[in-house]
Q: What sequence folds into this?
């Protein structure tokens, strides 16, 4: 499978270990950085990974930062991405089967290497169930325009 | 504190219990639904909650669905929202201290009531650290325009 992986500095070592493992498992892995332990900003890497998945350059993505929280928020800014932050395999399975998630996020400082591998293995081997879940997933691709980005339609609306 | 809470049907019972507890704790809680156990779509409630937080109608939000995954993806579509899906209090603390998260997501079928309360208690009592985290959080408010929503700038770009 064509996979993409990205992390900030806090998860650089975990990314290297997971990328090597995924290649050993036969996957084609695009490592989108960061490429060292110098401090970087997780949103940059979440956006790069989300773009790669949205463009179809990877079928699925792996997003890593210290807690997984920051990079999962960033990845989910892209309406073509459904990023699930998980810490155990059941959530990774549900992310695929119910939410058709195309990015899995993990926290390098919270989840150990073997648990991370078990989560990713579950993620990569579970199919989306479709059915009643399909309409919900479609709605995730079409979020409402946020109020902050909308044109104002009236002035002086009381808080 | 002014809080908002929302869930799909899978988390309706947990929402009721958490809302009652938060009111007992002295918070003003706006329950944005769902208001029964009939099947609904989690994105609708994620979007409603995100909008309430983005508009400042609530300082912080609580988002619930079966796994927490779907509603956390939906909430994070709004660039003014930083939603952290958690299953234990350390992640809830880091979500506030490092990511200035304003919505906490929990999975009703995966996280029990007392653990959910512990997560929310940690979330509500932790301050954002600012400093180096501030620039990263700012970037979460200004995602790049997704490729799918961009105007094409050139034709025939090879995949």
A:
């Amino acid at each position: 499978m064509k996979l993409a992986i990205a992390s900030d500095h806090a998860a650089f070592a975990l990314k290297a270990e997971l990328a090597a493992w995924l290649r050993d498992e036969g996957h084609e892995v695009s490592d989108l950085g960061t490429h060292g332990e110098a401090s970087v900003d997780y949103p940059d890497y979440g956006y790069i990974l989300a773009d790669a998945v949205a463009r179809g350059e990877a079928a699925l993505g792996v997003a890593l930062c210290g807690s997984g929280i920051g990079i999962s928020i960033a990845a989910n800014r892209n309406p073509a991405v459904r990023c699930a932050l998980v810490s155990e395999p059941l959530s990774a399975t549900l992310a695929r089967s119910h939410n058709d998630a195309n990015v899995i996020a993990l926290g390098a400082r919270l989840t150990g290497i073997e648990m991370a591998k078990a989560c990713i293995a579950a993620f990569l081997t579970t199919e989306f169930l479709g059915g009643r879940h399909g309409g919900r997933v479609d709605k995730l691709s079409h979020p409402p325009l946020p109020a902050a980005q909308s044109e104002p339609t009236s002035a002086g609306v009381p808080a």
Notes: The CA atoms of residues 96 and 128 of chain B lie 5 Å apart. The first strand of chain B starts at residue 2 and ends at 7. The radius of gyration of chain B is 17 Å.
